[in-house]
Amino acid sequence: MNEELDLETLAVRAGIQRSAFNEHSEALFLTSSYVFVNAQQAADRFCNRESGNVYSRFTNPTVTAFQDRLAALEGGEACVATASGMSAILSTIMGLLKAGDHIVASHSIFGSTVQLLVNIMGRFGVTTSFVPLSDLEAWKQAVRPNTRMFFVETPSNPTMELVDIAALSQVARSASVTLVVDNCFCTPALQRPLALGADLVIHSATKYLDGQGRVLGGAIVGSKQLLMDGGIYQFLRTAGPTMSAFNAWVCLKGLETLKIRMEAQSKNALALAEWLERHPAVARVYYPGLPSHPQYDLARRQQTCGGAIVTFDVVGGQSQAWHIIDATRVISITGNLGDTKSTITHPATTTHGRISEEARQAAGIGPGMIRLSVGLESVRDLKADLINGLG
Prior knowledge:
The chain is of the alpha/beta class and 391 residues long. The chain has helices at 7-13, 39-46, 61-74, 85-96, 111-120, 136-142, 165-174, 187-190, 224-229, 232-239, 245-255, 258-278, 296-302, 317-326, 357-363, 379-390; strands spanning 78-82, 102-106, 127-131, 147-153, 178-182, 200-204, 218-222, 282-286, 309-314, 332-333, 343-345, 369-373.
């Protein structure tokens, strides 16, 4: 049935599993465990001879509903939900790779992802090489005999750089490498990487999937072979970095308004990007929906619009960037994004503050860069708030 429905309908109807009470709104199942009819059923459930709920660390009806809905939106066969976006990345690596394996990732990824790949996974014998995101030849050249995974964000955090997913998927396929795409910035409302050839899609559900900054969550979407048979689900079942039932319920309800929110916030973001590009205190604006963006044509093919994140460099470096941020009265100063409330941060000293200066330079993150996550406030009020510091 899902294949016959549009995304807006799937966002409010997919994954519904009504209980014996036949409730209209999805139920929240706050239980740690489940009662079995007899010892034989308990044994069969634990050994996967019979399907059904066993323990909420890895089976919960509310979490299943969220997983089924997000899989439908992304066009994937299956989904597993995790405690956070970072735990989704960790679970993907731990579930699919082993000591001695090699990852190729772009320079332009979230600072905590860099920390995970270099400082944590490196201790366990999984190595990572970093390449320019849009340089397909660099991806080809970085492949080694032990390369098992490509990891990208597109658009990237925070420079809004893109990679041609379809073209990169061909490179990955020719090298027998799993292509993992972090779709946090676009969500399936604006971009569907699986349809473009990606093998797995990663989400920080904390961001746009919830959409109101209420809970933490993550998700991995893809084929049943990779998620269920390939080891990701087994890692989650054993290690336990799974999504709670309450958080799943919040994110499940958040999906209902995902497309409406993303379209409205993206419209606001485009208006702000166009305005910022004309402001004399702004040196450069990074936004895929602007014709000045070097990958504007790719963005038009790959995304339905430019998204709701606007990054810009200001004249005057870090001191001026901090002055602009500190002068805001409406926009929230926080490292989170994807909220209905607009947020602002200085990537070089917050989200990417723990990586080396060399890594920041390779990612294109300078001291004068500001990342703005545009919410649902009026554009007029957001402009006025930024003018407090921009002048």
